Amino acid sequence: MSTALIARLTPSEVVSTLLTVCASLTPAPALEVVLLDWKLREVKESYSLGRLRTESGQPGLCKGQRFDPDHPAIQVAQTGQARQDLAGSRQLESIWLPLPCHPQSPGVLGLHFSGTQATLPDAKVWTEDEQLWWHAVTSMTGLALNRALDYAALAERTEQLEESNAELRGYTHALSHNLGEPIERVSNFLKLAERRLGSQLDSKTRRLFELGRREAEQLAGRVMELRALALVERQSMRVTPIDLNVLLVQVRRILEPLTRGRRIHWLIDDLPRVKGDALLLWQVFVELLAFVLEDTWEQPDTQIGIDAQVPDGFVVLRLWDNGRGFPAAIGERLFEVFDRSVPRQSEFGRLGLSNVRRVVGRHGGRIRVESVEGQGVTFFVTLPRAGD
């Protein structure tokens, strides 16, 4: 059984394959496979083939049944060691095998020979060859079972995340629209009231009006970010090969108002191509370059560099500057919605770093940031590489 095939099997398919193999034995035993949930300490699934005999007083395990510490299946799974039960000095009744052979195994295989007249040669339960054969079977089955359970758990978790993400998109979209118009009206009311009162306002009252307008403008900005967030989630992606060298030339042209009159040394390597949506990635790099240009605002001799490494089908971009930086503790907070740990000074990069992370994530990549106060900022962006 190849690794690629194992990766595609479900737990039920793994068990079905195992039962098919065991059913070909002569004499054919009754078979029982039990999958265990160690977190809940109960039987997750139970499968059987043939008539299970219970003369030993140990009934078959059922789905949802709590662990019985005296049951041989639970003892075998707990210890990771096989067990043989005899009906007489030479009569083999059952064999219990862990899947695979380690403590707290996720599954157990039971072979029940009652009624098959299975006798043991020379008072040995298993010959050495039999033990090696069963070790190979249980090891391979255990590997397949572990992978199948991992994939099943991952699929369930992915489905839950997709449902949560859909709810978040709907909530974000509704919130941005429900807040947008009232905030705009409040801002307009303040402007009208201040204009009508005119010279009747003393300096303190005028200052209060000014503060009220600024708060309304900030709230309007937050609503714009919510709308951008909703747009990023809803926007379909058109994935094509992208030449990052060309893309960055376009981005730098847009950001000329932030570079005019400044001495900036651009240290940009020849970059590989990536796979992605050109418009979304254009917005990502507008945001990131605007951030580092602002970070170096007070640096008389600005240096901004971009280089790349290409490990295992991905491109890891490193975008750095020699600006003022920020405390290392801020780090991940930069990517949170509405975070203002680092004040922004320009109107560029309206996407927001929280949306940058979402866009990169939609491309199957990731982004992180490192900084030490007084030593600049470094972004690491991982994106899928385009085929040559």
From TrEMBL:
Listed InterPro entries: BphY/WalK/GraS-like, HATPase_C_sf, HATPase_dom, His_kinase_dom, HisK_dim/P_sf, Sig_transdc_His_kin-like_C
Documented EC number(s): 2.7.13.3
Pfam families per UniProt: HATPase_c (PF02518)
Enzyme class: transferase
Species this chain originates from: Deinococcus oregonensis
Catalytic reaction equation(s): ATP + protein L-histidine = ADP + protein N-phospho-L-histidine
Signal peptide residue numbers: none
Protein name: histidine kinase
Domain Histidine kinase as annotated: residue spans: 174-387
Keywords: ATP-binding, Kinase, Nucleotide-binding, Transferase
Domain of life of the organism encoding this protein: Bacteria
GO molecular function, one term: ATP binding
